[in-house]
Amino acid sequence: MRITVTVDGTTYTDDVEPRTLLVHYLREQVGKVGTVVGCDTSNCGACTVHLDGHSVKSCSVLAVQADGCEVTTIEGLARDGQLHPVQQAFHDNHALQCGFCTPGMIMQSIDLLADNPSPDEQAVREGLEGNLCRCTGYQNIVRAVRDAADHMRPGAGPEAERVAGDAGSRAASSVGGGGE
Amino acid sequence: MIPAPFDYVAPSTVDDAVRALAEAGEDAKIIAGGQSLLPVLRMRLAAPTSLIDLNRIPELRGVRDDGDALVIGSMTTHYDVQRDPLIAEHAALLAKATDTVADPQVRHRGTFGGSIAHADPAGDLLAPALALDTEMVVAGPDGRRTVPAADFFEDFFTTALRPDEILVEVRVPKHTGWHAHYEKFNRVAQAWSMVAVAATVRTDGGTIAEARVGLTNMSSVPVRARAVEEALVGRPATAESIRAAAEHAAEGTNPTVDGNADVEYRQHLARVLTGRAIQAAMAG
Ligand SMILES: Cc1cc2nc3c(=O)[nH]c(=O)nc-3n(C[C@H](O)[C@H](O)[C@H](O)COP(=O)(O)OP(=O)(O)OC[C@H]3O[C@@H](n4cnc5c(N)ncnc54)[C@H](O)[C@@H]3O)c2cc1C
Ligand code: FES
Ligand code: FES
């Protein structure tokens, strides 16, 4: 079947088998290998992308279902070499170890901040319920999301999908890391 | 893993979908949010020959006011149910239960109708659907028919839906101003209910005038805790009368045994969670 999908701002028209999962289309046909697969059961969230502005597990959507839609992956977040504030906050707060869960964590964190621009710790944990991390114990991930919230413009999120103007100039967070 | 090959159609009306389902034969499947179906296909636990996708049918999405009932389109997502103002006002129990379903990504795709049609005994929307006396409107080659929730859920993953029928919408009698709470017990984040209790109560002065209590995962289908409902009605809405009524929660239940819990433990949970659910409903 022929589909037309906009991925990270570029429009692609491709032939896919109906059984092709969106994540495999993104990785193997579009080349967006930043989005990864971590499980067979829709549990881990590593494959999270935004589909028309909302987070989805791209292993649990068919590529044909994205026909006519807009997809944002982790590769579409940075602008002119400048990290998205949530990416920057994950870096600053040592919110990753092996990094496998990170693309999904960041995409879901952005979705969460769009719904709730200043989440408390509980709200961050609930918002990231669908993303599993085998390494960090989550503490620094929660810190990173709250740090990002402090630095992001109100309302920035999947709809805005752009870097806050002051993100590059801010000092690195002083929050220490439990894993360091 | 990737699913076995299948044909795929995405009709734009219910009539076309019913026709496509009939034409595709008995090994065809409906796909709604795909949040239960796609994991099953990926693990090759099922291999339908065709998928009929309901996502491009606008008439199946959204909630409308129909006098003394709300009508919820089967393709309304969990995310939309959580935020719908009509549901918040007239069927708060559904919104509260939906808050506990899965995780945000799954709630963006997964649908109310998909959960009802899937009929997982641990699914969180079945007991609320039963407690609120909802009716399922289904469409097939011979037209539409309406099935009350009490007759709709037949067994584990089995409903009154015939293979050539589609769940179109769910009619929810208005429970305006009723207190509501869904109390779910599970082991870890994102896990399914071991047992959960859906409770909604109408008070008149300080007295409980009406009560509906549904139990999740206390049988192969959702069940009503009728003895609790009866024990509540006409009583003052006090902690003491709630506690006394909740003692009846496990009466007549025959819950399944799995790696999580045996019969006694599930029955204990049903009593404790019923008390908590009604208390929380009254407080909310
Ligand atoms: C990680 C994870 C955690 C989850 N946790 C929970 C949880 O805690 N509680 C909970 O309740 N659910 C949970 N779910 C399931 C989720 O709620 C699903 O959205 C729901 O069970 C199925 O809805 P769907 O729209 O995705 O249906 P699909 O997966 O598309 O379909 C499910 C089944 O129903 C049939 N079907 C769907 N719609 C119709 C229709 N309109 N007419 C006829 N047949 C139809 C399909 O053919 C299929 O057999 C979880 C799912 C995942 C992946
Ligand atoms: S790969 Fe694990 S949820 Fe998608
Ligand atoms: S950093 Fe390794 S899984 Fe999260």
Model description:
The complex is a heterodimer of chains A (180) and B (284). Chain A folds into two domains: 73 residues, Ubiquitin-like (UB roll); 72 residues, [2Fe-2S]-binding domain (DNA polymerase, domain 1, Orthogonal Bundle). By secondary structure, chain A is of the alpha+beta class. Chain B is α+β, with helices and mostly antiparallel strands and 284 residues long. Chain B folds into three domains: 47 residues, Uridine Diphospho-n-acetylenolpyruvylglucosamine Reductase, domain 2; 113 residues, Uridine Diphospho-n-acetylenolpyruvylglucosamine Reductase, domain 3; 103 residues, CO dehydrogenase flavoprotein, C-terminal domain (Enolase-like, domain 1), CATH 3.30.390.50. In chain B, 34% of the residues lie in helices and 26% in strands. In chain B, α11 runs antiparallel to α12. The chains are: A alpha+beta (180), B alpha+beta (284). At the A-B interface, β4, α3 and α4 of A face α2 and α6 of B. Bound molecules: flavin-adenine dinucleotide (FAD) and FE2/S2 (inorganic) cluster (2 copies). The site of one FE2/S2 (inorganic) cluster has 11 residues of chain A, from loops. Chain B: InterPro entries: CO_DH_flav_C (IPR005107), CO_DH_flav_C_dom_sf (IPR036683), Diverse_Substr_Oxidored (IPR051312), FAD-bd_PCMH (IPR016166), FAD-bd_PCMH-like_sf (IPR036318), FAD-bd_PCMH_sub1 (IPR016167), FAD-bd_PCMH_sub2 (IPR016169), Mopterin_DH_FAD-bd (IPR002346). Chain B: It holds the Pfam family CO_deh_flav_C.
Secondary structure layout:
The complex is a heterodimer of chains A (180) and B (284).
Chain A: E1 2-7, E2 10-15, H1 22-30, E3 48-51, E4 54-57, E5 70-72, H2 85-92, H3 102-115, H4 121-127, H5 139-151
Parallel strand pairs in A: 1-5
Antiparallel strand pairs in A: 1-2, 3-4, 3-5
Chain B: E1 7-9, H1 14-24, E2 28-31, H2 37-42, E3 50-53, E4 63-66, E5 69-73, H3 78-83, H4 85-90, H5 92-99, H6 104-109, H7 112-118, H8 126-131, E6 135-140, E7 143-148, H9 149-152, E8 153-155, E9 158-159, E10 166-173, E11 179-185, E12 195-204, E13 207-216, E14 223-224, H10 226-232, H11 239-246, H12 263-283
Parallel strand pairs in B: 1-3, 2-3
Antiparallel strand pairs in B: 4-5, 5-10, 6-7, 6-10, 8-9, 11-12, 12-13, 13-14
The site of one FE2/S2 (inorganic) cluster has 11 residues of chain A, from loops.
